[in-house]
Structures are given as C-alpha cells and as structure tokens.
Amino acid sequence: MAGPSVPATFLLKDELDIVIPTIRNLDFLEMWRPFFQPYHLIIVQDGDPSKTIKVPEGFDYELYNRNDINRILGPKASCISFKDSACRCFGYMVSKKKYIYTIDDDCFVAKDPSGKDINALEQHITNLLCPSTPLFFNTLYDPYRDGADFVRGYPFSMREGAKTAVSHGLWLNVPDYDAPTQLVKPLERNTRFVDAVMTIPKGTLFPMCGMNLAFDRELIGPAMYFGLMGDGQPIGRYDDMWAGWCVKVICDHLGLGVKTGLPYIYHSKASNPFVNLKKEYKGIFWQEECIPFFQSATLPKDCTTVQSCYLELSKQVKEKLGKVDEYFVKLADAMVTWIEAWDELNGAPAAIANGSA
Amino acid sequence: MAGPSVPATFLLKDELDIVIPTIRNLDFLEMWRPFFQPYHLIIVQDGDPSKTIKVPEGFDYELYNRNDINRILGPKASCISFKDSACRCFGYMVSKKKYIYTIDDDCFVAKDPSGKDINALEQHITNLLCPSTPLFFNTLYDPYRDGADFVRGYPFSMREGAKTAVSHGLWLNVPDYDAPTQLVKPLERNTRFVDAVMTIPKGTLFPMCGMNLAFDRELIGPAMYFGLMGDGQPIGRYDDMWAGWCVKVICDHLGLGVKTGLPYIYHSKASNPFVNLKKEYKGIFWQEECIPFFQSATLPKDCTTVQSCYLELSKQVKEKLGKVDEYFVKLADAMVTWIEAWDELNGAPAAIANGSA
C-alpha cells in the first residue's frame, strides 16, 4: 500500500509511546512506517520469552518479555497477565510519556471513503488534545471539529468542555464481535465509515476495545489496568472491557472525557470464534453482574487522584463482585498490586483538578 | 430536483400524519412530492387567519388556523402559541394517527454522498420501528442496522433494546445554531454527512430540534408540548428545546428510547440572527437553570402514563423553575392545560408497559 501523499506531521513525537503486545514478528509495522516511525515503541512480548521478535529496521523501540516483567516488578509481576494481550498494560506502566497509543499487530492502515490512507495516530492525538463534552449531548457530534459547533440549546456554561482522557478508535473490515455473534455472522464485515467523533456521555458505560486505543497517561493511566486474563485465569477477552468500565466510572467521577469514533484502522482477520467462546463464556455471565455494578458505582468526593479512585473501586469490586465469583476477589487484589507497582515505577500521585467546565 | 430513481415504498401510509406549521404557501412540498404525497398532512397556519395558504395540488390535508384552534379548544387554546412555530403541537393533538413526522417549510430534500435524494420520512420510520439501546452504548452505532450488530462486551440481556419513541433527524447546509453562534459564524454550513443513527443514552439530555422530527404519538405524544412562545411571551426558539427536555426525562422514566442522526434534510436558509437573539436572550440565561433542573428531575414510580409523568413534571417546574422567573409558573399551568386539552380530544390514557428489555 502506498504511503500518504502529504508528508505527515508528527504531533507529540516526544510525548507519546506506542504500546504493542505481540507474540510474532512485527511485519505489520511496515505499513504503519509513514505514521509511526518517528515515535518510540514499547513492545510487550507475550508467551515464550526465549523467542526472538523481529522488528522492522528503523524503528526506535524497547521490548519487554516475561523475564523482563518478572525482573522489573518482582512479586508484583503477578498482576500482569501472561498468554493474553492484557499484558500490554505493562507497557503503560513503564512508559514515561504523557500519552499512549496502543494497537494490535493484526491492525492495518484503513482508507477513508476518498481512498486516502488514514493516519490513525494523528486523529487520536487530535481527539486527545481537544476537549470532550460529557455533560450534554451535541447532535452535530464533536462541536470542536472544523465546520461544526454547539447547536442551538447547548448550554453556554458547558461549552468549555472537559479534558479528554481517552480516545477510542474503531475498525473497518472485521468488527469487534463476541464469539456468539462471530459464530452467527461469520461473514459480517464493517464497511460503514461513520465520519464522527463523539463524547460518551457522563453516566454511560461503553464497551472499550483495546485494539485501537489512545489515552492521556497522566490523566487516567493508573486506571488502564487490563486485569487478570489468559494463563491460569478462568477468563479471556474481557481485559479491555474491564479497563473500560473502570476508566469510565473514574473519568465520570473526575470530570474527564472519553471519546469514541474516528479513527478507523483496518482489522485484518477474525480470531477463532471457538477459541474465543472458551475464553469468553464466563465473562458472558459475569458481565450481566459487572455492568449493573459499574453503572451504580459511586466514588467518594475525597477520591481526587486516579489511584485513590482505583483503590476505592477495587474495594467495591471485592465486596460486591466477590460474591459473584472468587475470581473477582483475586482480581480486586491484583488491582491493588497494579497500583502499588505503578506508583513504584512512576512515583506518588498528585491530586488532579476537576477537568470539567 | 429529480425524483428518486427507485419508486419509494410508503411505509405506515395510514398510520402517520405529517405536521407542518407555516405562514406561507407550501411550495416546498413540490420537492417532497415523491415521498410525502400518499401521506395525510396536518397544516397549522400561524399568524393572520384571514390569509389563504396555498397547498400544491394532489396533497391530502387538513388545515387549522387560529380561529379553528380557538373554536376547537375554547379557553384551553391559551396553551397553543401564536406567531411562533410552537403552534405545530396543535397538530400533534388533533392527529388520530400513531406516528407523527413534523418538518419546517424551509427544509428541502437533501442528497446523500452518492448524490441520491434522501427519503427522510422513510428513514424516520425505520428509526421508529426499530428498537433503541438507551442502557448501554454501542460503539458501532445502531446495532440493528444492516451490516452492524452489538459489539463484544455488550450485555446480552440488553440486546432486545427498548421501544423507540422519538427519531431526531439532522440538517445539511444551514445548521441549527443559536443567535450568538449565527452572529459569530455567519457563513458556516454543515457539509458533513455522518452515516449513523444512535440512541441518546438514558440520563443524557440533548437539544431536540423540531425542524425534522418524528415520534410515536401513542408512546410519547402528550409530552410533545412546545410550550408558550411567540406572541405575548418573553421568549421564542426554545419550544422544541423545552419539549426535548421534558420528553427525554419522561422517556428515561418509562424505559423508552430516543434516537438521533439520520435522516438529513437540506435546511435552505438561516433565519435572521438579530431577530433570533431578541427571541432567545432570556432563554440563554434560563437554560442554565433549566438544564440542571431536568438533569436531576426524577419521577415517582406510580407515574406510569405519559400524562401522569407530564403533570408531575409541571408541578416540579412550577415549584423549582417558578423561582427563576414568573414565566415558568405560567408555563407550568399551560402544561396542565395542554394535557387537559389532549385528553379531551384523545380520551383517557392507559398505563403503558415499561418498554425496556
């Protein structure tokens, strides 16, 4: 595929890390070279640490395998999943940058309706640098976008918006379906390019997919924990969902915004639905309990840092979801370990000001 | 402009009325002929009742002017605005159909990106006949649309959705901006066609525009009151906003869905921003009080009909917004009169079942 006709500008080049979890050679980066090459990559190698992962020449990267994770975190490495892409959150923790973009290695450059390659990273950065509008819905979508604004009836006091913590991008071609839907609709492909970015309103949860995701690490990083999945755990494929529920509750509490919509990436192939069903089936039951739990979760006013919010949430998880399954007791403990490890590597948190207008 | 190349199907032909408020001849209907002609029109003539409004030949319609409204409603006609398009809600009241589509007479047929004429009415009907998803956000927009579905992580118990009460359509060309934004951006035009329909989540308010709006009269009709605007009132251009706030609170309470997005109409020309500013300026202050009021409004469980919800809301308006300005006391009384008039013309309400899954 050809590179973009106009040279890309490399926004936030020194303030953003690209985190990629992988078990294979990163040939997919060739296609992303015009957009990613100037950025620093953090590669989290999953599975067998003796395997060598090849990274195309010219990329600046650091790579961590399981031995590295164990060495750096010691006993706290128990909070990082193994044999599951949930391990990517280790990359968030070791980064020293303000922003993170994370992408799966089966995601390629998508084309917009005019046939132009989409610079997904640039759009995510635009989303993150521009405010969100969580308190009231704007019917013309992102009011800060060129050619758009707040419509009649949008309260003026809310037009300053809130700081954006998360930018959730979408996928053309293979949509992010659960195993039952994959089984029922094996051939369905997403071909609809919806030219919109929108804020997910305060109080509304959403299914956050980790395939094509950017966030402000300083604002929300410690809540981007992808849980305990994969090897030795009763569940998989709920890592990003878990993070999304926690992140949204905390963003709502702290007055931060979460956006979804553009940019699209091209998701090349569907994972095996039978394997997925095995990973997911407990989650399919559990999410029926988790979602009402997160929908009604409230955090006390004195939780003013992401860390304190997250630790409070872990208590509530243990108390309320611990009754659903023993797994959630273990997960709640891992949430605490995650915060301890985060603070060990990143220093103590400072209280953040409320981001809403 | 040419008619559609494929003959339109006329869904719900005998179950839907098109309500048009106007002060001029309805030449704009010529362009809509291929889509509207088989439907019944209810024309609400505003202003001087001695003026004759010409309706293009071949349309089936009933027309009400101010004399008719006064005759039909008697003293209760006081709840219907005069010299303001808010008078359109009289048409909702006298209709005997299940569905209403209302459109302004400066709205024309828009074209989709392929250049095809958009059958706005057909899309509204599709929106209304298909469930909404107010309880959880679907990142691929309307999950019931062809080629789309619920994404991974969407709780299965919520996939049945809720009944759709309202379909809010958008506008290409002149966007629906308030006077200050019109003044600041006189040349801004909306050219972005966003190919999406979405449910506005439960608990989230939105600015409902009455220019291109459809709803299920049986589900939500009595809440579609456009308030006291225009002649003798201190405010204008908040008629649809007021209706939207009330409707959304009641839909949330009754478990009904509200959608926004497609279809687009082509909004031909901007109204005078100086005139608009005069109409709006009190609203600009008042909405800062109204929106927090509606955001925190709750209705008791025993309000199971739209009417009982609306009467309860009128009490709360009087009690809480009455302190902001005397106008809201008058408006609260008019809300009660509206319901009395509605029931007089339509019979007593029956409790409706909760529409959510």
UniProtKB/TrEMBL annotation, chains A, B:
Protein localization: Golgi apparatus
Family: Belongs to the RGP family.
Keyword tags: Cell wall biogenesis/degradation, Glycoprotein, Golgi apparatus, Isomerase
InterPro entries from the UniProt entry: Nucleotide-diphossugar_trans, RGP, RGP_fam
Stored SUPFAM superfamilies: Nucleotide-diphospho-sugar transferases (SSF53448)
Catalytic activities: UDP-beta-L-arabinofuranose = UDP-beta-L-arabinopyranose
Keyword Cell wall biogenesis/degradation: yes
Species the sequence originates in: Chenopodium quinoa (Quinoa)
Protein purpose: Probable UDP-L-arabinose mutase involved in the biosynthesis of cell wall non-cellulosic polysaccharides.
Name this polypeptide is given: UDP-arabinopyranose mutase
Cross-referenced Pfam families: RGP (PF03214)
Gene giving rise to this polypeptide: LOC110722223
MF terms in GO: UDP-arabinopyranose mutase activity
Biological processes per GO annotation: cell wall organization; plant-type cell wall organization or biogenesis; UDP-L-arabinose metabolic process
Principal location: Golgi
GO cellular component: cytosol; Golgi apparatus; plant-type cell wall
Glycosylation sites: R152
Enzyme Commission identifier(s): 5.4.99.30
Site feature location: Required for activity: R152, R159
